[in-house]
Write a structure and sequence with these properties.
The complex is a heterodimer of chains A (113) and B (114). Chain A is mainly β and 113 residues long. Chain A is built from no helices and eleven strands. Chain A has a domain of 78 residues: Immunoglobulins (Immunoglobulin-like, Sandwich). In chain A, strands 2, 4, 5, 6, 9, 10 and 11 form a seven-stranded mixed sheet that branches. Chain A has a four-stranded antiparallel sheet with strand order 1-3-8-7, with no helix packed on it. With 114 residues, chain B is mainly beta. In chain B, strands 2, 5, 6, 10, 11 and 12 form a six-stranded mixed sheet that branches. Chain B has a four-stranded antiparallel sheet with strand order 3-9-8-7, with no helix packed on it. In chain B, strand 8 and strand 9 form a beta hairpin. Chain B is globular, with a radius of gyration of 14 Å. Chain B starts with a strand and ends with a strand. The mean pLDDT of chain B is 92. The chains are: A mainly beta (113), B mainly beta (114). Chains A and B meet through strand 10 of A and strand 5, strand 6, strand 10 and strand 11 of B.
């Protein structure tokens, strides 16, 4: 049973459109993450948050932005989608303790035409 | 740089055979180490984790992993593979005492032949 929800599961959109990928968790976790996943590649961290009003960029340069206004919600926004943004986006969360594993959503598969 | 490496992109085994998936890490101190599994169309699910203590850790679904400091490895094993084990497996590591941002390997795709 998933405690972290991502919507939509699949999205096909044209170049130049603004999109927001939603991520919500019901576990009260402080930390949340966005990873980009491409076949045969490492998961690349693009954004993370330690709590409300905390957001940081990850290792992978990204044209996306995030916000953390509420503990349970961590949306990712692309102001102008491009074909290079085509990928799978995974949202995850973890409690405050350093050694806690991540809980993942089922991902959003984005295709930009 | 701190990282984990999974040298095998694909592994093919017959159902009932034993399995070992390799993971090597590069960290200054003993890291936190994890194995996750991803079925098609799903997110990643935690199989097991290592923080300290006993170097052989047991996980869900009959998996285990052994931490070997001398080899900088954390290989995942299962004595008898089932067809339902076919999936993508990811090794991950995080620095102890640091910012704790997990880094992931590129994954190993497990194919199970009947």
């Amino acid at each position: 049973e998933a405690d972290i929800y991502q919507t939509p599961r699949y999205l096909v959109i044209g170049t130049g459109k603004k999109i927001t990928l939603e991520c919500s968790q019901t576990m009260g976790h402080d930390k949340m993450y966005w990873y980009q996943q491409d076949p045969g590649m490492e998961l690349h961290l693009i954004h993370y948050s330690y709590g409300v009003n905390s957001t940081e960029k990850g290792d992978l340069s990204s044209e996306s932005t995030v916000s953390r206004i509420r503990t349970e919600h961590f949306p990712l926004t692309l102001e102008s989608a491009r074909p290079s943004h085509t990928s799978q986006y995974l949202c995850a969360s973890s409690p405050g303790q350093d050694n806690s594993p991540l809980h993942f959503g089922n991902g959003t598969r984005l295709t930009v035409t | 740089a701190q990282s984990v490496t999974q040298p095998d992109i694909h592994i093919t085994v017959s159902e009932g055979a034993s399995l070992e998936l390799r993971c090597n890490y590069s960290y200054g101190a003993t890291p936190y180490l994890f194995w996750y599994v991803q079925s098609p169309g799903q997110g990643l699910q935690l199989l097991l984790k290592y923080f300290s203590g006993d170097t052989l850790v047991q996980g869900i679904k009959g998996f285990e992993a052994e931490f070997k400091r001398s080899q900088s490895s954390f290989n995942l094993r299962k004595p008898s593979v089932h067809w339902s084990d076919a999936a993508e497996y990811f090794c991950a590591g995080a620095s102890s005492g640091g910012s704790y941002i997990p880094t992931f390997g590129r994954g190993t795709s497990l194919i199970v032949h009947p």
